[in-house]
Amino acid sequence: MVKIKSFLLLPLVNQQEIAPFIDFKTFYQRLEKIVDILEREKEVDLFYDNENIRDFEEPLKELNEDLVSPQSIFASLLSNARDIRGVNFQGRYLVWNFPENHTVLDSQTKLIIKMVEETLLNQSQTPKTQHKYLLLNFTDLCATRAFLPIIKDCGEEKCPQMVCIPQIIDKNKLEIWLSQNRQSRVFNNNPKHGESGKGVRTNKGEQVSARLCNAREAQALLDTAIGCANITDELYNFDRKHGKYIVFKDENTPNNTYHGYHVDSLDEILKYLAANGNDWRALKTKLESLAKRDG
Length: 295
Description:
This protein has eight helices and 15 strands. The protein is an alpha/beta fold. It folds into two domains: about 5-180, no CATH class; about 185-290, no CATH class. The strands form four sheets. It has a five-stranded mixed β-sheet, sandwiched between helices. The chain has a four-stranded parallel β-sheet with strand order 3-2-1-6, sandwiched between helices. It has a four-stranded antiparallel β-sheet with strand order 5-4-7-8, covered by helices on one side. Strand 14 and strand 15 form a beta hairpin. The protein is elongated. The mean pLDDT is about 85.
């Protein structure tokens, strides 16, 4: 299973000259959309540096007195993300930005150093672990590049190492990158749910839900289905052709296969999650948005 680790880096302390003209509400809405996309992906984890968040918040507290505390806003937005906590510096790290001066990474950018060390570790293991890394870079460090190039210099006795970290802060580009880098989802035609509303079988004497679409249509819906790793292994989409939600069950196979079936309403999904002890509230809004998307 491919696991994507994404890391959020907000503008740094030495860039706080931009703070007076940050429209915090617009910035937050932009960030909220990005976090929402990441949370829809079952295979994605989001990380942040708590010190980076705190340093970004401080100037905004004075500039936006009419706003709810930025600290409380970020706490809510990043409730499903994780702080990177301690990072071990194992050399000297520089942002390679030829022909301009290189930028030395320090404690303010330890989140990037964390990514560098994990990437190098991932590359050195045999067989390679299935991890991919993505930086949500809101700083001015090589902001126009698709990749952030980092050189790690461990001194005179070792050869410098270079890591290129993909970076994105555009919502549309993020969706494209995720679709290209996550492990492909494969629809498996489970005969008990039938096909195109026909051929549904009973399971231990009980009627099971039907799949109203054909296998090709189900695969297309699976490709764009959303989930929430902290709540359930299932994925969901809204089938506009039939006006119903479709549920995809993870079969936990190396090929990342799923089978699916339709349900009569969103409430049916939420009741199932609640019955299994899952807090469905964070997922409800995301699922409602599926039915509201333009066709």
